Input
Amino acid sequence: MSDNSFNIESLRAQFPILNQQVNGAPLVYLDSAATTQKPQCVIDAITDYYTGYNSNVHRGAHSLADKATIAFEAAREKVAKFLNSPKSEQVLWTRGTTEAINLVAHSWGNSHIPEGEVMLVSALENHASIVPWQILAEQKGAKVVPIPLTPNGDIDQNAFTELLTPNVKLLALSHVSNALGSVNPVAKMVAEAKAKGITTLVDGAQAVAHFTIDVQALGCDFYVFSGHKLFGPTGIGVLWGQEALLNAMPPYQGGGEMIDTVSFEGTTFNGLPFKFEAGTPHIEGVIGLGAAIDFVNSLDHKAVAQHEADLMAYLIDKAASVEGLTRIGHAEHQVGAFSFLLEGAHPSDVGMILDQQGIAVRTGHHCTQPLMSYLNITGTIRASLSIYNTRDDIDRLFAGLEKAKLFLL
Ligand code: PLP
Output
C-alpha cells in the first residue's frame, strides 16, 4: 500500500485494453467476475520472461534456469504473504480454482469421504464446487447436500446449523457468489463446521480481487482461487491447504518434479509443494501472477475498497429507479457482481444490444444452474465491477438498457 491518492485515471491508464472502441463506442467492461483485465506490469512480466530468461525451472545448470526458478519461487512467496499463509510450501500451483477443487476431491476426498457420508455445499455454489463433489459422491456412494437459501438469496444460516450432523465430512463454500455478488459469512460458517470436526474448503475465486484474504483468520482447511480473476493470467491458480492435511494427502498426478526417487521397485515422492506439481509448470503464468500480486500490493486498499463500495451503491441505487428492472439477490454485503432481469426481455438479447454499444456484460446461468433453479429463473444479466470501473461506466450501462428497451419491448 504505497499510494494514498487513489486516482482512477492513472489506474485505468495501467490497463491498456480499456482504452479502445468496441462496435464504434468506447469500451465499458462490466465482466470482471468472468475475468479481470490485466495491468501493463503483468503483461510486461510475461514478456520479460519470454524475451529475457525463458527456461525450465528447478534443477537447471545454467543462469537462465536460475533466474526463472528464482522468479517462480518468489511468486509462491508473494501468494503466501497475500493469503497470510504460515509457510509458502502450503501454496500449490494449479490451473485455476476448478483444478484446485478437483485436486482436493481426488486426493483428499478419496480417502476421507466414506460411503453414506455427506458433503455440504451452499445452493449458490459455482458448478466448479458442485460437480467434483458429485463425481466423488458417485464413486464413494456418498451424498452432496445443498444448504438452502433465504428469499434474499443468502445462505440460510439456521438451515446450515441444522444440517451439521455427524455424517457431514466436508463443507465447501464460496467466499463471494459469482452470480449475486453476495459476501458469505465464511469465517462464522467455517468455525461452526470446524467445531464439529468437518473439513472446510473456501472458494475464493470472486473474493481475491475485492478484499484482503487471511487464511489463518478464516480458519479453513483449503482456500482456492484463480490468477485470472486477480489481474493475472489465465491457466494459473492456487490451492492453499493446511500443512498437515497436504502432507497426508496422496499425489494427484504422477510424473517428473513430484518424485524423490524413481525405480521399478518403487517410487518415493517429493515433499510440499512439489508433490502436487507434476511436470513442467505454467511458468509464465506463475510469474504473471506474482506481478499481479505486486500490482495489488501497490494499491491503497482502503481507497480502492471505498471506490468499489461507492460504485456498487451507485449501481444499486440507479437500478432501483429503472422501470421493469428486477434486481436478483439482495445481500446486505455485495461486491463485484450485480445480477438483474429486464421485464419482457431475454437476458441474451439485452446482452447483445449492450454489446452493440460497446458495453460488455455477461448473461445466462453463470455456472450456477442450481441457484437459477432455486430462484426459478433460467439466467440473469450480470454487470460485474472492478477497481478500474467508473460511475460513467454505470451511466453508460443504464443508457444502454434504455436503448435495449426501445428495441426489445
Ligand atoms: N468458483 C467461482 C465462485 C467462480 O466465479 C469461478 C469462475 O467464474 C470458478 C469457481 C471457476 O474458476 P476457473 O474457471 O478460473 O477455474
Remarks:
- The radius of gyration is 22 Å.
- The chain has a mean pLDDT of 96.
- The first helix runs from residue 8 to 13.
- The longest strand covers residues 168-174.
